[in-house]
Amino acid sequence: MTNTGSQIIKAIEMAWRTIQRKHPEIPTVVAVTGSGFHGKNPKWAHFWPGRWLTDNEEGKTPTVVDELLSGAPELFVSGELLGLPGRRIMQTLLHEAAHGLNCARKEHGTNINGRHNRVFVKAANELGLIWPEGKEPHKSIGFSQVEITDETAKKYEKIIEKLEAARLAYLADGRRFENGQGIGTKGNGGDGGEGGDGGTQKRGRGSRGGSRGGKRIYVTCICATADPFPITPGRLERAPILCGNCMTPFRPRDEDDD
């Protein structure tokens, strides 16, 4: 089983390319996996814009601004999700692709706390996901829990079969959380974070959903007129927060910036 991990990533990349062929606006990602349930804010997956730096083809040394603007998005898929049926995995990949579509269009599908809005739902609809009729949005994660339709599952039938065939290994806790037996508020794209589309979320005492009480750090973006603001470390770790102007993730302000 020395190539188990690479086979899993290949299956995820194959599914993502299939989605891209149907929806060319969706950006190419760096796919990674690991445990999404080891912390206090479990998540099935996330889409993180600009997470990975890419080689500069012209050979020049990029500036920090260049790197942040040109970085490749990260598609994280939890090992717990891989233990669920292929249709459920595909649902989450389409959820993350909706975030990718929002990002490509410079739309805001979530607010600063990761609450999914109608802009996200619109992108999700284009990808074949729907918000269940008559269902109220979650008080914390909003319209995160969109669901794959039978028609969409049929379109991706072969990919769903390949995802299940590629399940050489997975982490076991996912089925427990999917069945509503987890700790916290029943909601992964989210729900334990940006893109976490199912599962549970445990909110802390911080005003922005952090889990470390009153401790705050200042974060900033790359805007020339950036205005640093305080946030809990736990909230910053849970999912990336994008600036509405430069569309890059906020990061902790260096002490030298004081």
UniProtKB/TrEMBL annotation:
> Which intervals of the chain are annotated as region Disordered?
179-212
Where is composition skewed (Gly residues) in this entry? 181-212
Q: What is this protein called?
A: SprT-like family protein
The species is Amycolatopsis sulphurea
